[in-house]
């Protein structure tokens, strides 16, 4: 979230409407706000990292869980884990935005990593939705087109595209200090003044926002077509095999639709905040609104990175069983050799995707 905590102007307006100087406090928010936000973020960090690591282990350990859909979800879990690397820096900045002691490289890298993972997640969600559209609306073509090898290639290309398109961020951010000030006291990880004055920062803000809204439009269109096809085929599927296939498609689409919805709800305020940030120069009152709006967006940003494993547990009995199996194994390290020597009934009952 590379612009969720932009550099504050010299003066802002507090809740009573009186002017105060933020530079003397070196913090953007009241302690009554910072403490609960920090606690929530730490909880999201623990849940998100643990849940996404378990997701990767589930897909890696059980071969029958390695469907093409789950390959995308596993790659998304890796992206979500990487997102949490930026949380310590974000928490530091909301508590004390200056001086920034972690160096220019760390500032650039964390901002770049966050943006890359943001792009990567939405590209994965779009790709897996396109796959489900093909599998449901064009099942015969999908059997030929969609293979695990091709999905692996697509995933690699998605990561390369995300890494490349996020590249300009490296030139927009860095550690700077106001002219005439002491660097050891006023260093900040923020957008470079030159990028703001040249308009490059605003351009990248709008490009990144479009990067979000265009895929959301595509996702809405795809799931509309999928629902239409499933509704049309509701009475057209005959026999136990067809009925099972239809039920499988509906459950998979239902789970993915919930994931997409949670993604949009969590990240929509984040991108609205970017638009407001682009207009923050209109006045101090608007600036203060954008700060609290962006603080909320930051929490939702990390919620988005931690919520998917929770959704999988709620909607998938098979995922719950696999998660319980892994947790039980880790809590019983002394009997690990005995457990591994016994045939796993779970491996025989796993389906190729969440049902």
TrEMBL record:
The chain crosses the membrane at residues 33-59, 71-89, 109-130, 151-173, 210-231, 252-272, 292-312. Keywords: Cell membrane, Disulfide bond, G-protein coupled receptor, Glycoprotein, Membrane, Receptor, Transducer, Transmembrane, Transmembrane helix. GO terms for cellular component: plasma membrane. Residues 51-312 form the G-protein coupled receptors family 1 profile domain. It is found in: Cell membrane. Pfam families: 7tm_1. One of its GO terms (biological process) is cellular response to hormone stimulus. GO terms for molecular function: G protein-coupled receptor activity. Residues 1-21 are annotated as: Disordered. InterPro entries: GHS-R/MTLR, GPCR_Rhodpsn, GPCR_Rhodpsn_7TM. It is a multi-pass membrane protein. Receptor for ghrelin, coupled to G-alpha-11 proteins. Stimulates growth hormone secretion. Also binds other growth hormone releasing peptides (GHRP) (e.g. Met-enkephalin and GHRP-6) as well as non-peptide, low molecular weight secretagogues (e.g. Belongs to the G-protein coupled receptor 1 family. This is Growth hormone secretagogue receptor type 1.
């Amino acid at each position: 979230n590379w612009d969720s905590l932009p550099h504050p102007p010299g003066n802002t307006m507090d809740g009573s409407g009186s002017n105060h100087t933020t530079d003397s406090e070196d913090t953007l928010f009241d302690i009554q706000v910072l403490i609960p936000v920090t606690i929530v973020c730490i909880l999201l960090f623990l849940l998100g990292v643990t849940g996404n690591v378990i997701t990767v282990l589930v897909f890696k350990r059980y071969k029958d869980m390695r469907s093409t859909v789950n390959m995308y979800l596993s790659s998304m879990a890796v992206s979500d884990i990487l997102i949490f690397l930026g949380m310590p820096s974000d928490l530091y900045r909301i508590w004390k935005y200056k001086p920034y002691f972690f160096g220019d490289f760390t500032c650039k890298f964390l901002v770049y990593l966050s943006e890359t993972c943001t792009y990567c997640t939405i590209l994965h969600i779009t790709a897996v939705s396109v796959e489900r559209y093909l599998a449901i609306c064009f099942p015969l073509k999908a059997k030929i087109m969609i293979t695990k090898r091709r999905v692996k290639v697509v995933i690699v290309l998605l990561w390369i595209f995300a890494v490349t398109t996020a590249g300009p961020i490296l030139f927009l951010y860095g550690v700077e200090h106001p002219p005439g000030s002491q660097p050891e006291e006023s260093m900040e990880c923020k957008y470079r003044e030159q990028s703001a004055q040249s308009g490059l920062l605003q351009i990248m803000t709008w490009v990144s926002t479009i990067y979000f809204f265009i895929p959301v439009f595509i996702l809405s269109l795809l799931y509309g077509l999928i629902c239409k096809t499933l509704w049309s085929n509701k009475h057209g599927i005959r026999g136990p095999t067809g009925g099972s296939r239809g039920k499988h498609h509906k459950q998979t689409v239902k789970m993915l639709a919930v994931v997409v919805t949670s993604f949009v709800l969590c990240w929509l305020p984040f991108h609205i905040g970017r638009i407001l940030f682009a207009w923050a120069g209109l006045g101090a009152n608007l600036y203060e609104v954008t700060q609290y709006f962006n603080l909320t967006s930051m929490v939702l940003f990390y919620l988005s990175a931690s919520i998917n494993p929770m959704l999988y547990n709620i909607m998938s009995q098979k995922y719950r069983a696999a998660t319980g199996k892994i947790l039980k194994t880790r809590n019983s390290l002394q009997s690990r050799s005995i457990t591994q020597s016994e045939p796993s009934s779970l491996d025989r009952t796993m389906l190729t995707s969440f049902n």
